[in-house]
Automatic annotation (TrEMBL):
A single MF term (Gene Ontology): symporter activity
Transmembrane parts of this sequence: 32-53, 153-174, 180-200
InterPro entries, sorted: Na-dicarboxylate_symporter, Na:dicarbo_symporter_sf
Membrane topology qualifier: Multi-pass membrane protein
GO terms classed as biological process: dicarboxylic acid transport
Gene it is expressed from: gltP_1
Name of the molecule in the record: Glutamate-aspartate carrier protein
The organism's taxonomic lineage, starting at the top: Bacteria, Pseudomonadati, Pseudomonadota, Gammaproteobacteria, Enterobacterales
A GO-annotated cellular component: plasma membrane
Species of the source: Serratia rubidaea
Main location: membrane
Length: 235
């Protein structure tokens, strides 16, 4: 609900606001590559920590609500059969229906579309692009305001999810949940200091300067991870 409008609006504003066509091409390519590399690193870090510390150990899996994992089974079959190749991954960046990608939350196609839209918008005359650019600026600022509003009440929702978990599984379920929450914070701190520290060094910035620049985005990411913890506890 929040991430997709923020990603689209901020990318369009950032790219369309540059103006220089050569810079725009470099920014667009770097944006897609950065997202791909950072996402891969995040997945590796998450899988490593989860397999090493096993935060869900001790939970009776037979009592948990079952969910549909057919989409993951399909991906596994593609990888095993070799059909999930580099070419298919690159082609998957191009959305056949951008609205379907938005509905499913497929970030790479959304980023690809946003970059192209920003490039197209930047090529328009100033008097034509300014009204639409102002709309995207307003959407971006509005969605960040909405995020801050939701964050005020997020602890209440998380408390409710944890309360349901305790009611269903007893106080013994709090230990695996506490391990999960602690592990998430460890992963976030590691990512912020090590991964973003490396990015800051590459950009010749101090890490705290980069964190201040990305403050709103980091808060948004932490907010979604906190809700994810609560949902994991519930399901």
């Amino acid at each position: 609900m929040i991430v997709v409008p923020i990603v689209i609006s901020t990318l369009v504003v950032g790219i369309a606001g540059v103006g220089d066509a050569k810079k725009l091409g470099r920014i667009g390519l770097k944006t897609i590559l950065y997202f791909e590399v950072i996402t891969t690193i995040a997945i590796v870090v998450g899988l490593t920590l989860a397999n090493v510390f096993q935060p869900g150990h001790g939970i009776d899996m037979s009592t948990l609500t079952t969910v549909d994992i057919s989409q993951y089974e399909k991906t596994t079959e593609q990888v095993q059969s070799g059909s999930h190749s580099l070419v298919s991954t690159i082609l998957s960046l191009i959305p056949s229906n951008v609205f379907a990608s938005m509905a499913k939350g497929d970030m790479l196609p959304i980023i690809f579309f946003s970059v192209l839209f920003g490039l197209g918008l930047s090529s328009l005359p100033k008097e034509t692009k300014e009204p639409l650019l102002n709309v995207f600026k307003a959407v971006s600022e509005t969605m960040f305001k909405v995020t801050h509003m939701i964050m005020r009440y997020a602890p209440v929702g998380v408390f409710g999810l944890i309360a349901v978990t305790v009611a269903n599984f007893g106080f013994a379920s709090l230990l695996p949940l506490a391990k999960l929450v602690l592990l998430v914070y460890v992963a976030i701190i590691f990512f912020a200091l090590v991964v973003l520290g490396t990015v800051a060094r590459m950009c010749k910035l101090r890490i705290w300067t980069l964190i201040r620049i990305l403050k709103d985005e980091l808060i948004l990411g932490l907010f979604h991870r906190q809700l994810g913890n609560g949902a994991a506890a519930h399901y």
